[in-house]
Amino acid sequence: xxxxxxxxxxxxxxxxxxxxxxxxxxxxxxxxxxxxxxxxxxxxxxxxxxxxxxxxxxxxxxxxxxxxxxxxxxxxxxxxxxxxxxxxxxxxxxxxxxxxxxxxxxxxxxxxxxxxxxxxxxxxxxxxxxxxxx
Length: 134
Description:
Keywords: DNA-binding, Repressor, Transcription, Transcription regulation. By secondary structure, the protein is mostly helical.
């Protein structure tokens, strides 16, 4: 691990700073931790401390949610990304592929839409579309 990666992974930011940087509430941040999407470090007093990598991950989660992807879909995408990152460590840089291909994202979204249909509930996108047709 190089110095830049060490600095990016250092847990130094309290939740109040993370809230300002990501525009997420403390409740949302803790919710993502409960779902094991992030795992901040803890001080001896049990306070959460976040790294710059945690901030990036929270912003990525926020972006996925804004695109209408549910928690199960986000977990799949992040798992695929982590798998590809591990594969990149093994492969030379010239041979590495994009982290998540468009096809993989479409497959996850398709699965999510099928899941939403099975439970007879509209997806977030369907709810957003209806507000434009008054």
